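Troubleshooting log. The previous structure file for this entry was overwritten by mistake, so regenerating from the original sequence record. Sequence copied from the archived sheet and checked twice against the printout by T.R.
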Amino acid sequence: MATSAHHKIVIVGGGAAGISMASRLKRKKITDIAIIEPSDKHHYQPLFTLVGAGCVDVKKTERSEASVMPKGVTWIKDAASAFDPDNNSVDTAGGKTIGYDILIVCPGIQLDWDKIPGVTDTLGKNGVSSNYRVDLAPKTWDFIRNTKSGSAVFTMPAGPIKCAGAPQKIAYLACDYWRSEGVLDNIDVHLVLPTPRTFGVPVFADALDEVVDDYGINLHLMADMASIDPDGKTATFKSMDEGGPGFDLSYDMLHVVPHQSAPDWVKSSPLANDTPLGYVDVDKHSHQHVRYPNVFALGDAGSTPNSKTGAAIRKQAPVVEANVLAQLAGRKLEGSYGGYASCPLTTSRSKMLLAEFDYTMEPTPSIPLLNFQKPRRDAWLLKKYGLPILYWDFLLKGRA
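Regenerated output below.
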């Protein structure tokens, strides 16, 4: 098929990764950049947890996509639907074929709600919600504030997900609210995780264990939700240990997190790796595709084994920028990403700890002299006020 247009740089996805990459490359005087993105709205997703906890109005998470699009960048308001890397082109749902010299893939991650039977039929109803959808986060708050007794269950699925701390953050925020209302002792709270501990880095797991104990949360480890019975208000869990016993939990309120993967059209493309999740197959340090040297990927849809967070994108973007410029100039790629990610773990409605780590799974603190490995009041202010400013005014503008 003949190309509808050709650009030096084509970026698939107008989220945090795509907008920040376009801004960075514009600042380096690259003039022919196109972003393929169908959405009218752009959301700051890390605030969804605070929306679900009644701490932030959902309107504060949203701006128009047009307002964050860098000036001088061509916005192709369409959805990418297929890659043809052998012919250096991308097809769109609207029937366009866009050619490129360099392709940067960052379409985000797909929420696979249907992987847990019973979930899609009850989302937003009967006490079941999820902060992983912007329209459902306010529902989470409705269910939390109207729960005075009974059983509350918070889950996390097996496999990579964006912001892996979010499934438990909402549990702590809910418990803090229920305690302030004097009803926490009337609620049987369960947190079900598929992992051996609350966090993969021991120092942060130790701190979170204290939080769990303080709230009296029933912690279930190495378990994954297998299905929901909406009529019986029961969730069934399977063991992550081979041959281990499963169990059921009844609920009055349930916060569910979906399994996640690369978008289906990415999975079926030549750029995908050979796993069922189908992420874009890139070198974990350079972000260059392992088979197509003029293709790069960053953000949630890339195969790099880091935690999928906006903080990871902030560290990936300058690496991809340097390597894209080197590729265009025919130079050796020298930009290298070490796997940095951070997870701001809200432990109450006034405190947070900041888990920073990299591929070594060791703490990598970035703020000198302050110990954010324990819950702090100033860290909460950073989460609620500082990080949104960093996102809108610095990350998206290519300055952080």
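The chain has two domains: 5-109+262-338, 113-260. Archived copy saved in two places this time.
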